[in-house]
């Protein structure tokens, strides 16, 4: 992919310590605008009340199913329809063509409260962690290339593969419909053992594969395990329409969002345009002044040298069908907008309501969407909830507390467990409509990306997290064999609040290549201008040198956080037209653009970033 150079700017915005400023400035961050969790008829014990805006009745009519095409072309599929209903649509969808409706999700299952205000049913915790077909198919597709100056060589000392080869803690379970024989999937060879490491990674999602009798599954014992659900339907049902009641409940949110678009707080390809746009020039003036303050403080000088970061070379196939980068990003941004719908997506509807969940006591909010290719995206909401604060301001407090808990402790917040339970509910409901585990993906921005990464880590779903900090939890390999990708922007402090990316030490725990106490889960794709990190790299050297210098660091942290953190900045660098856009003018959209990245699937993104040298960090945590 070619990089298009534009005028440069510098650093990014923050995520953790600055969490409190996050609430104040995240007019553009989003929450689910209502303090509701479960739909009418649910057995939930949650105390939150359901509320949603009206649904947009324009729904995408999916074209010929990829599943149907592959079902006809593959003899193995027809011979084993119950176990392999995993065919896909042939044509690449235009993710900007149609828009779906937005509504609150019903749940017909009894709810189990395991945390404050929990509003979703908990799955059977006695089962071991299940893996997706992508994790079961394990050819060697990644090679980790370490810089020769790197001081750690744990990867080589571990004998190459990061996968735990022991049989302890494993149980045998029947293979799912997309499981495949290992020998038919081998694509690349193991790299030399000297300074490189071969990583096992799934070939794809939803590719036709040979059926097999059984497989092994890691018994990680997360708080909640994946739920397979019934599989009577051979192919997914078309997106279901919202009920009249669901549309009525969405009406207030849609009306408010229409007004917000007039004032350029939100944008949509189908909404009204702001007659006068005063905010963009004011935004640019403020950040230009901020840059001058940084120069006055000497933060524009050449920064201290940073340790090298291990890079990944992706050698796997790029034909797997997943949602595109633009669909993931728009679903993430939609979580910040009251009454907004991601471009080209439809709500995932159960019993007339979109599956969604909001828990103001833990700060978790999420909605499920369906792509034109009949794949489900679970989008988790980031800190402050954006324009949703108009209907549900209290959730910003609990989301900020969740941020602080993850950053400054080694514990897992209740919001992460809520996110896991919601994903389990979506899996169960999706299975009843003919979707398989490989048809379900997770995404989110900031705190939402954190929650998406946790769900991916615990039950093996693929997806993309935007501006995600490091995790407090790890599993064997920690995502080396996953298709979960973290897209991070240079200059934004949030991604560097981790131990596997250098830059915010000693404010954060020590940097450890590919690991440490707070590593990311999965691989990392860096976007933007590396020079944007210069002020932060200089400011962090002031940390611990006295109250005044600490304040200078915190002020620079917050300034860069708001300049580079919001989804509109990522949309610019990824060559995506944001739809919806929330506070689209806040931040600095300048510098290199990765042309065409928005239209890429996950494996295509891995390949493009690998070729550009921007695919970083081997997940080598034990």
From TrEMBL:
Stretches the record annotates as Disordered: 32-187
SUPFAM superfamilies per UniProt: alpha/beta-Hydrolases
Extent of Basic and acidic residues compositional bias: 92-102
InterPro entries cross-referenced by the UniProt entry: AB_hydrolase_fold
Low complexity bias locations: 37-57, 178-187
Protein name as catalogued: Lipase (Class 3)
Species assigned in the record: Mycolicibacterium chubuense (strain NBB4)
């Amino acid at each position: 992919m070619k990089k298009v150079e534009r005028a440069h700017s510098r650093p990014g915005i923050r995520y953790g310590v600055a969490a409190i400023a996050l609430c104040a400035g995240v007019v553009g961050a989003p929450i689910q605008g209502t303090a509701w969790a479960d739909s009418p008829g649910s057995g939930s014990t949650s105390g939150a009340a359901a509320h949603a805006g009206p649904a947009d009745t324009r729904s995408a009519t999916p074209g010929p199913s990829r599943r149907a095409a592959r079902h006809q072309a593959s003899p193995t599929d027809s011979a084993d329809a119950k176990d392999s209903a995993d065919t896909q649509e042939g044509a690449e969808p235009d993710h900007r063509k149609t828009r779906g409706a937005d509504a609150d999700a019903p749940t017909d299952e009894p709810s189990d409260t395991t945390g404050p205000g929990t509003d979703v049913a908990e799955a059977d915790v006695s089962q071991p962690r299940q893996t997706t077909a992508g994790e079961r198919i394990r050819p060697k597709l990644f090679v980790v290339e370490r810089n020769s100056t790197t001081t750690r060589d744990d990867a080589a000392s571990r004998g190459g593969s990061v996968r735990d080869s022991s049989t302890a803690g494993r149980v045998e379970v029947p293979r799912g419909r997309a499981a495949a024989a290992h020998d038919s999937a081998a694509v690349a060879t193991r790299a030399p053992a000297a300074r490189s490491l071969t990583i096992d990674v799934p070939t794809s999602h939803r590719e036709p594969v040979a059926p097999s009798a059984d497989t092994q599954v890691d018994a990680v014992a997360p708080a909640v395990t994946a739920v397979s659900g019934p599989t009577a339907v051979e192919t997914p049902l078309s997106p279901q329409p919202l009920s009249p009641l669901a549309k009525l409940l969405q009406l207030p949110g849609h009306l408010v969002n229409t007004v917000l678009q007039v004032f350029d707080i939100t944008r949509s390809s189908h909404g009204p345009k702001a007659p006068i746009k005063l905010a963009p020039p004011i935004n640019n003036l403020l950040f230009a002044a901020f840059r001058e303050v940084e120069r006055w403080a000497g933060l524009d000088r050449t920064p201290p040298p940073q340790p090298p970061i291990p890079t990944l070379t992706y050698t796997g196939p790029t034909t797997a069908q997943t949602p595109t980068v633009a669909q993931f990003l728009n679903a993430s941004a939609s979580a910040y907008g009251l009454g907004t719908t991601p471009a080209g997506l439809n709500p995932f509807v159960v019993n007339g309501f979109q599956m969604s969940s909001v828990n103001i006591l833990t700060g978790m909010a999420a909605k499920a969407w369906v792509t034109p290719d009949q794949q489900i995206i679970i989008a988790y909401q980031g800190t402050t909830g954006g324009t949703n604060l108009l209907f549900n301001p209290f959730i910003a407090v609990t989301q900020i507390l969740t941020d602080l808990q993850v950053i400054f402790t080694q514990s897992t917040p209740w919001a992460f467990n809520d996110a896991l339970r919601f994903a389990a509910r979506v899996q169960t409901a999706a299975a009843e409509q003919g979707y398989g585990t490989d048809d379900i993906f997770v995404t989110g921005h900031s705190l939402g990306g954190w929650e998406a990464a946790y769900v991916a880590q615990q039950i093996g779903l693929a997806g993309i997290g935007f501006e995600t900090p490091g995790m407090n939890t790890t599993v064997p390999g920690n995502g080396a064999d996953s298709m979960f990708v973290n897209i991070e922007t240079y200059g934004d402090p949030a991604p560097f609040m981790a131990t596997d990316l250098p830059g915010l030490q000693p404010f954060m725990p020590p940097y450890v290549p590919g690991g440490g106490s707070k590593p990311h889960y999965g691989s990392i794709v860096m976007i933007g201008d590396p020079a944007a990190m210069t002020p932060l790299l200089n400011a962090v050297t002031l940390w611990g040198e006295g109250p005044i210098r600490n304040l200078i660091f915190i002020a620079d942290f917050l300034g860069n956080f708001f300049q580079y953190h919001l989804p509109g900045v990522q949309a610019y660098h990824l060559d995506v037209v944001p739809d919806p856009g929330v506070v689209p003018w806040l931040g600095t959209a300048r510098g290199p653009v990765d042309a065409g990245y928005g239209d890429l699937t996950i494996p295509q993104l891995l390949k493009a970033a690998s070729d550009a040298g921007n695919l970083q960090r081997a997940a080598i945590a034990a």
